[in-house]
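Bumping my old thread because nobody answered last time. Still need a sequence for this structure:
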């Protein structure tokens, strides 16, 4: 098995991809050999000693392609160091931190398939123009108008980097 770490992600609008790239960059800066790939492009895990997988949240759940990735690779993921993260707007709300426990519960289906050794919960961002569904765009516009959400990038790069650094001893011998 190669001494590489896979950071893989499922993202609808790019916010989760950016988090995955930041995790991969941080791991690399500390000496890890890392590949950052969308889940849809990962066919085989044999080249990796560890996997970090993350998904955007839609309606309180990992994206379907992310759950499919876990089901497809479940047996192999159980044999490797595995960490999971999610990216959602709930954590970017005013007082979003009070929802961390609830947001953490959205990883329950992930835990049912593969138990992560570490979990990262991160705020995402909102660019209404990137939301594919007209109905969802309308809902978000109304939510912004009523002050529930604020458009923009709400990712906490310091928290993302800190989590990635804390992963290193769990994922490898670096």
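Sorry it took so long. Here it is:
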């Amino acid at each position: 098995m190669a001494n590489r770490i896979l950071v893989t992600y499922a993202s609808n609008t790019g916010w989760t991809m950016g988090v995955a790239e930041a995790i991969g960059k941080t791991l690399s800066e500390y000496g890890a050999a890392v590949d950052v790939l969308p889940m849809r492009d990962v066919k085989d895990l044999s080249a990796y000693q560890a996997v970090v997988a993350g998904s955007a949240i839609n309606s309180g759940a990992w994206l379907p392609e992310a759950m499919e990735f876990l089901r497809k690779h479940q047996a192999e993921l159980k044999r490797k160091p595995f960490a999971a993260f999610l990216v959602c707007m709930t954590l970017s709300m005013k007082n979003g931190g009070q929802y961390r426990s609830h947001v953490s519960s959205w990883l329950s289906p992930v835990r049912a398939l593969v138990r992560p050794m570490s979990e990262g919960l991160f705020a995402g961002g909102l660019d209404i123009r990137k939301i594919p569904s007209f109905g969802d765009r309308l809902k978000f516009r109304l939510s912004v108008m009523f002050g529930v959400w604020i458009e923009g990038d709400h990712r906490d790069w310091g928290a993302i980097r800190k989590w990635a650094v804390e992963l290193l001893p769990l994922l490898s011998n670096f």
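The chain has a mean pLDDT of 91. Let me know if any region looks off to you.
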